[in-house]
């Protein structure tokens, strides 16, 4: 019998839908059609969460996520995950204080990059994810030489995500800008893969859109979640 | 501040995604972009639920849904809803024993049909929804002359839903068969609207596909849910 995962969702909603569908599909792929594990989702307000992030009131973000963790625990979740990269800025506090264990998208991603023997991944994501140190610190622990975009490119990437892609809408001009920028980091900085460190980016960028492999953080996170569900 | 709804989902998963998206969109439509209410979802095993339905072990179905209701209550839901028509066969038991109130898709639909002054709706849905009396009994209370398909047409409609549409896949030949059948009931039985009494049917049939208005039960249910959230 599969363990029940609890998902903190809504950050954003389209990413939550992606996780929900992927978890069910991956469970079926591994164990057969007749297995539809229980899944709990607590969907919270992305506007409130991002306001805490952009004002760097991380204690408020942490309190919001810990309250969701308590609700997921009460609903019978064996463990939990946050279906978004950005809130992982407070992951350590969540892991320490939550009543149930959490699977981190950052740890899952670094472990994947290491297994694939990529050496110089380019980090992309929201401004907060690129600016804060949580991906860099995890990469260091794994001995990965993470390339963080310049201040100017951070703003370009952030603008690729908001507001359209957050709503699931791909704007071709923004996609072209993203692809061009990645190409520049491949030529000038020798990056050998791109971490799509925002769960909405895979809605826009797939394998083949750029000249190096793409690291799909939501897909990797879902695989780690399903590993734990079926362990 | 909006009330928190708890959704019993997974029956099937695509309908759950549809409810989740619609609830968020409808809240935004009514109150503005900056409002993303908390939503709880407990997704359960459709294979197990349908097995209880087809063997008519309704006590087991009720126990399964009441356990989900308890989990939604524990997660802080103010009220709940089942994102599917078929399980409403045990709605009375759920409403009586659940710790939180439930919004019924059947009541919401009959109330809508009455407000629109439709007089002879055709009921479509899974075999179970058409065969069991729960839509007919509610319609009687509202003074609506509900037309239930013949045994043969029930099997045709059921076959339109399973297995592809349950997975979100529209098969054009099955859609054509559904449209042809509705046309026959319009000509021969004078039906003046079609109740899409399965939350996956609107993925296939929209306004204009048939010559009479379609009654989208998930849309109506979501509206009733959002009414309650914002009340």
Structure summarized in a few sentences:
The structure is a homodimer of 231-residue chains. The first copy, chain A, is built from 10 helices and 7 strands. With 231 residues, chain A is of the alpha/beta class.
Tell me the total number of β-strands of chain A.
7
Overall pLDDT of chain A: 95
Annotated CATH topology of the largest domain in chain A: Rossmann fold
How widely separated are the two ends of chain A? Answer: 10 Å
Helix content of chain A: 40-55%
Give the strand order, joined by hyphens, for the main sheet of chain A.
2-1-3-4
**Oligomerization:** homodimer
Q: Provide a count of the helices of chain A.
A: 10
Structural features, described:
Two copies of one chain form a homodimer. Chain A is an alpha/beta fold and 231 residues long. Chain A folds into two domains: 5-104 and 219-230, Rossmann fold; 106-215, Rossmann fold (3-Layer(aba) Sandwich), CATH 3.40.50. Chain A has ten helices and seven strands. Chain A has helices spanning 13-31, 46-54, 58-74, 91-97, 105-115, 127-131, 134-141, 151-161, 172-189, 217-230; strands at residues 5-9, 39-43, 79-82, 102-103, 121-125, 193-197, 214-216. Chain A has a four-stranded parallel β-sheet, sandwiched between helices. In chain A, helix 1 crosses helix 10, helix 3 (58-74) crosses helix 4 and helix 8 runs antiparallel to helix 9 (172-189). The termini of chain A are close together. The A-B interface holds A 10, 13, 16-17, 20-21, 24, 33-48, 71-72, 74-76 and B 10, 13, 16-17, 20-21, 24, 33-48, 71-72, 74-76.
């Amino acid at each position: 019998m599969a363990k029940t995962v609890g998902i903190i969702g809504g950050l954003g909603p389209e990413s939550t839908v992606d996780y929900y569908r992927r978890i069910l599909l991956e469970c079926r792929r591994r164990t057969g059609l007749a297995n539809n594990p229980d899944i709990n989702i607590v969907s919270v307000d992305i506007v409130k969460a991002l306001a805490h992030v952009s004002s760097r009131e991380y204690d408020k973000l942490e309190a919001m996520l810990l309250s969701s963790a308590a609700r997921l625990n009460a609903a019978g979740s064996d463990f939990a995950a946050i279906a978004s990269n950005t809130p992982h800025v407070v992951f350590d506090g969540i892991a320490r204080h939550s009543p149930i264990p959490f699977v981190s998208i950052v740890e899952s991603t670094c472990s994947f990059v290491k297994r694939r023997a990529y050496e110089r991944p380019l980090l992309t994501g929201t401004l907060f994810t690129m600016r804060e140190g949580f991906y860099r610190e995890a990469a260091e622990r794994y001995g990965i030489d993470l390339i963080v975009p310049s201040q100017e490119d951070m703003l370009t990437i952030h603008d690729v995500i908001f507001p359209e892609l957050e709503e699931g809408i791909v704007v071709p001009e923004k996609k072209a800008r993203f692809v061009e920028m990645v190409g520049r980091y491949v030529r000038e900085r020798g990056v050998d893969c791109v971490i799509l460190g925002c769960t909405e980016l895979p809605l826009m960028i797939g394998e083949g859109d750029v000249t190096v492999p793409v690291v799909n953080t939501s897909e990797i996170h879902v695989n780690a979640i399903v590993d734990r569900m079926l362990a």
